[in-house]
Design a protein that fits this description.
Length: 307
């Protein structure tokens, strides 16, 4: 039988726990709301600062314009050279990091032992923490001279060079998310496949990879978003030439590189200043769409495995 003081203490702890739970729930909800407000604030800030360029020049004219001569007597603000530069760097990065990243994720999830799995995960986390300027310096010292010699180019500062290093930067994102997607595949599917006589490799490419395909796709999309928004490495390695490139083996200028390279030299509030914000708005919209698509795919996979 519970005496009266003990009963009161239990009721007091319960009330305190309920109050604490309510406070933490509201704090978590406030944190989520803050993230949405910050995202909306960034959008409004970009639109307000790019409004002069949008109204005076036109967003479509800037996106489809072929010439970027912002300091000419009659300035031209075409984004197409920067858009093609970003496209080449991203394409090279994706072609490099997707097969390597997915293969690494398959090894870690399906074949690595416990110690090897812990070691490789630690290495991947360390790779994600390396500053981009350090990778840019490594690219300048090791990749640039080799690209120039291997492909007999006048300079090694090309979209191909930048794409190689950006691809290395995107690897941790693709490996981590792909490994999570593969790990989420129910063990019953593997057991059933092995019971039917398939080998471990056959189980991986016939059962596990198809089952985790949406998660792997989301990892690739997030890797693309990581690559297209990279600034420092492309500023150091891409050559910064404002041309519409038809091959990755020439110097290019990307959208992040253009913004970072010119923002400090323009008059605040001027037309050129506003155009750079319009370019940032386009870049923000592209990366937001890519990340949103990846999140939708990941959420569909989570719902499928919760059934």
């Amino acid at each position: 039988m519970i005496d009266a003081p003990t009963s009161r203490r239990r009721r007091g702890r319960s009330a305190f726990s309920r109050a604490a739970e309510g406070v933490f729930t509201r704090l978590i909800a406030l944190s989520g709301l803050t993230a949405i407000v910050v995202l909306a604030g960034i959008t409004v800030f970009l639109v307000l600062n790019s409004w002069r360029a949008i109204t005076d020049i036109g967003m479509i004219e800037m996106i489809t314009g072929t010439d970027w001569f912002p300091t000419s007597k009659v300035p031209s603000y075409g984004f197409l050279p920067a858009e093609t530069g970003s496209m080449w760097v991203t394409a090279v990065a994706v072609l490099l990091c997707v097969p390597v990243g997915v293969a690494a994720a398959v090894y870690i999830s399906e074949f690595a032992g416990r110690r090897m799995k812990e070691f490789t995960k630690s290495v991947i986390e360390f790779m994600a923490a390396v500053p981009s300027v350090v990778l840019g310096l490594i690219g300048l010292a090791l990749v640039v001279p080799r690209v120039r010699v291997w492909f007999e180019l006048d300079t090694g500062l090309t979209a191909f060079t930048a794409g190689i290093v950006v691809g290395i930067m995107a690897l941790p994102t693709i490996i981590s998310i792909s490994e999570d997607a593969l790990h989420a595949v129910p063990a019953d599917l593997r057991t059933g496949s092995l019971a039917l006589g398939n080998t471990r490799w056959q189980t991986v490419y016939k059962v596990v990879l198809p089952a985790a395909s949406s998660g792997v796709f989301a990892a690739v999309m997030l890797g693309v978003g990581r690559a297209i928004g990279e600034t420092m490495v492309v500023l150091m390695l891409a050559g910064n030439s404002g041309i519409i490139a038809d091959t990755p083996f020439v110097s290019v200028r990307t959208m992040p590189g253009t913004i970072a390279g010119e923002m400090a030299e323009v008059v605040q509030g001027g037309e050129h200043y506003s155009v750079l914000f319009a370019m940032a708005l386009v870049l923000f919209a592209v990366t937001f769409a890519i990340n949103l698509a990846a999140d939708i795919v990941l959420e569909r996979q989570r719902r499928r495995w919760r059934r």
